[in-house]
Structures are given as structure tokens and as C-alpha cells.
Amino acid sequence: MRASLIQIAVHDGESVVSRRSRVAELVREQSGSDLVVLPELWPVGAFAYELFETEAEPLDGPTREVMAQAARDAGVWLHAGSIVERAGDGSLYNTALVLSPEGELAATYRKIHRFGFDQGEAVLMAAGDSLTTVELPEQTLGLATCYDLRFPELFRGLVDNGATAFVVPAGWPARRRAHWTLLNRARAVEDQAYVLACCSAGTHAGVEQAGHSLVVDPWGEVLAEAGPGEEVLTVDLDPKKVPETREAFPALKDRMLGVRRGAPRSS
Fold first, then answer.
1. What class does CATH assign to 2-253?
2. Quick one: pLDDT at residue 257?
């Protein structure tokens, strides 16, 4: 499976409408790929909190419409990053969209772990409550978003649901870029799965983005890594690599589930 990660540079001076049009063209240029991945909240910027309310849209809103046409034109599966979704009850969610090569909505994932420590996204958005996997012809994708990376139990749940590759769109800040690389490699190693981690570049509301999108194999080797600016990474994923890794080093079989925490021992 050939995957292309589009590391979009988001800048405050570009309108949402202009960015949608520009990104759609970038998606169309990846017509030789099987899967295309975009970053988290790229239409508005992950830290542009003041735009969340005004630019929120339903699942069938303008971003889905434009991206669905781009997926059809390119003939690709498209993980369209995430949008600020306005649900029927008025709540806002950080919601990822996966579109088929026919432009149909194949899956959605509402981000479970919201970043902000009682401010920003953590108070402006509601939390999702469901794990999501998507069956592609050669891989089963497990969906996670940005801050989810810090919660390994989510990824183990995706493995239990059949995931062989994790897709992680993000708006990760540059000041914690070392954590970005470390956590993506850790999730690949501990779950013996591919990780396709697509971060944005540029600056969101004064917050410099990490860039450095990367693709990691099930042994934790970085197959490709972007720089700090707008860039496209294209990598071929071997469909046999995950089952071969899990058979050669069957660590997942040794998981101890349901172990209870005991009382501290006295000396």
C-alpha cells in the first residue's frame, strides 16, 4: 500500500476557503497513492481557538464536500485530517473523516483525549467515546488524533480491534517535537504496527508547529520523516510486515490483562 502524508503549512493569513481549495489540489496530485493523510484541524489551525465556533461545520459540511471530490478525482482513500464538527445538539468535536476512493464517508473518529488542561480544546470541545478502525484492502487502520498519542491504552484497544496501522493526524507544537518522534516510535514498537503520523507545519495562532511528519514500521524504524515546512511524504507499506513482526517477536501474546493493583508491601 502506498501512503502519502501531506504536511500542510497552516498560516493565519490564509482563509479557510482558500486553504480548502489549495489542499484539495494537493490531494489530487497524489493520484498514484492508495492512501492520503492530512493533519489535524488543518482548515482552521489546531490552536486557533477563536475560530472553532465560527468555522464549525456538520459532517456533511464544506470540508467533507471538497475533500470527497478530491478523493474521487485522485482515486484514493483519504484520511482528511480532522474538522471542528458541530453536532446536532450544538456540541463541538474534533472529528476525523475517512473517505473512500468513491468519495463516500467510510468512517469518523471523534478525538477522545482533548488537549488543554482545562482550557482551549479541553473546554471548547466535547470528548469522543468510541474507538474506530477502518478496513482497507491491505491494512486495517486504527484512528487516533494528536494528544491521543500520550495514552497507549487507546492504541492497545485499536490493536484488539484488528488495527495493523495507526493514522495519527496532529497539530503538535514545535517546542515538544522530541516527544512527537518518541511517542510515535513507541506506539509502533509496543503494538507492532505501522504508524502514519501527519503533523501540520507553519504557525497556528502564534504556536509554531512541529512538522516532521513520519512513517514508522512495526519494529520502530523510521521509514521517512519530513522537515519543518510544507512537504509530502510517500512511503510503500508492506502488507506482510505486521503479521511477520508479530510472529517473529510475539510479545503481544504475553499481555497480562486484568491484573489488579495490590496493597503496598511493608518491609
1. alpha beta
2. 75
